[in-house]
Amino acid sequence: SPIGPDELLFRLNEISGDGDELVLQKSLLLTSRESEVLLWLSRGKSNREIGEILSISPRTVNKHLEQVFVKLGVENRASAATRAVRALAR
Q: Over the range 58-87, which residues count as b (16 or more CB within 10 Å of their CB) and which as e?
């Protein structure tokens, strides 16, 4: 299936060395996949949309987010997104 513009931008950013995912991974002590999921969450994507972008199921996205919430000590999407935005603003 063709990739959407968001996924294309994400892939181009990865290639060009735009390290948002790496910043989240290192500063928040997340796995690579957790940081990818959190990055898309912080950009306002739903679990279904994140799953489509990363080629994983929405349920798998949810499992990754559960781990992110535990690691960040937050209870919801908004708090997790806020932490991501703050980490990326440094």
A: eebbeebbeebbebbeeeebeebbebbeeb
Residue with tokens 């690579």: 32
Q: Is the dihedral of CA 7, 11, 12, 18 positive or negative?
A: positive
Q: Name residues whose C-beta falls within 8 Å of residue 29's C-beta, 6 or more positions apart in sequence.
A: 71
Whether the model clears a pTM of 0.85, i.e. scores above it, the answer is no
- pLDDT tens string 33-90: 999 999 999 999 999 999 999 999 999 999 999 999 999 999 999 999 999 999 998 8
What would the two tokens of residue 52 be? 């489509």
pLDDT of residue 80: 97
Query: Tell me, what CATH number does 44's domain have?
Result: 1.10.10.10
State the residue range of the domain holding 43.
Answer: 5-89
